[in-house]
Amino acid sequence: MKNNLQIEVCVESIDTVVEADRQGVDRIELCSALDLGGLTPSYAMIPQCRSIFSGELYVMIRPRPGTFVYSAAERAVMKKDIEVCARLGVDGVVFGGLTREGYPDEVLCTELLHAAKKAHLRATFHRAFDGVADVEKGLEQLIKWEFDRILTSGQAQVAVEGINLIGRMVQQSQGRIEIMAGGGVDAANAPELIQAGVDALHFSARIPKGVPLPLQMGKSYLPNKDKIHQMMLLKQQFPR
Length: 240
Known about the structure:
- This protein is an alpha/beta fold.
- It has one domain: TIM Barrel (Alpha-Beta Barrel).
- Helix content is about 35%, strand content about 20%.
- The chain contains eight helices and ten strands.
- It has an eight-stranded parallel beta barrel with strand order 1-2-3-4-5-6-7-8, surrounded by six helices. Strands 9-10 form a two-stranded antiparallel ribbon.
- Helix 1 packs parallel to helix 2 (about 45-50) and helix 3 runs parallel beside helix 4 (about 105-120).
- It is globular, with a radius of gyration of 17 Å.
- The relative contact order is 0.15.
């Protein structure tokens, strides 16, 4: 039986992109500043990754850290980022936004989705979904607006702790939108998430590099080759 489970690695370095391609990862989500939850990467980084990675390339559209409530000026930046990404050969974009009341932001989402679909890009609603006030209603909104995928930890700190809610989302979606589990996903807990019926697993794969130097601004990381390898083995062990 064909295995349709997708493996997505969240990356911020060229070295991890190279490793993801070498191991046959299905999709990468390209970001900067993963320590801040992921921000939009540089424009130069995108074509460099496109030239290396043979799978699907998605780009994070998030202009700043913090909340997912955005101003009109920030929405304009996000729309422009999507237009640039389209010209740089990506397959999809990743974004999300909420109202102050905790519902998916219709103004933001429909505007950005229009820009993405016009350029034939697929769209993932990211873990802003874990802050929605009403999961069932929010899920139906994203289906209606024609998002392709939702990334979620089931409103828990890590996905395996939110597995019951993730399972309910899978059941509610009935294949109308892809459900991707992310947040602390690794080879130890991935089997439970796969059994819950998710369409994809999302994780970062990096290891801290040595001891920070006095003038080092932030941490440095190396690709976690073994983690990617173990996750790709699981993909083969759990056919659909």
